[in-house]
């Protein structure tokens, strides 16, 4: 069974978040939480919150055990970009793009053989 959690419009660029998301794909969910707790990048905080939400969804909504879950997908998508302008020399303006992202984490239960 698959369980997912989505965190939308995170105020960080997808490029910065993808590096962190790649490091936890395929890991057991408990181990991924432990890794993210000590990961040196700020994006790990956002991904950790989404992973914790997915684990809570699995336990409360689907009655699954935390130890049986692993991270099947950790996808980072680009969201809307907030556009601002900063004054530059001689009356011109320079664009500032404040990028946002969507984080989607899918957990799956290990199949017993």
From TrEMBL:
The organism of origin for this protein: Methylacidimicrobium cyclopophantes
Keywords: Ribonucleoprotein, Ribosomal protein, RNA-binding, rRNA-binding
GO biological process terms on file: translation
Region (Disordered): 87-113
GO molecular function, one term: rRNA binding
Family named by the database record: Belongs to the universal ribosomal protein uL22 family.
Domain of life per record: Bacteria
Name used for this protein in its record: Large ribosomal subunit protein uL22
Protein encoded by which gene: rplV
SUPFAM superfamilies tied to this protein: Ribosomal protein L22 (SSF54843)
Role of this protein: This protein binds specifically to 23S rRNA; its binding is stimulated by other ribosomal proteins, e.g., L4, L17, and L20. It is important during the early stages of 50S assembly. It makes multiple contacts with different domains of the 23S rRNA in the assembled 50S subunit and ribosome. The globular domain of the protein is located near the polypeptide exit tunnel on the outside of the subunit, while an extended beta-hairpin is found that lines the wall of the exit tunnel in the center of the 70S ribosome.
PANTHER family: CHLOROPLAST 50S RIBOSOMAL PROTEIN L22-RELATED (PTHR13501), LARGE RIBOSOMAL SUBUNIT PROTEIN UL22M (PTHR13501:SF8)
GO annotation, cellular component aspect: cytosolic large ribosomal subunit
Pfam families cross-referenced by the UniProt entry: Ribosomal_L22
CDD domains registered for this protein in UniProt: Ribosomal_L22
NCBIfam families xref list: rplV_bact
Subunit structure: Part of the 50S ribosomal subunit.
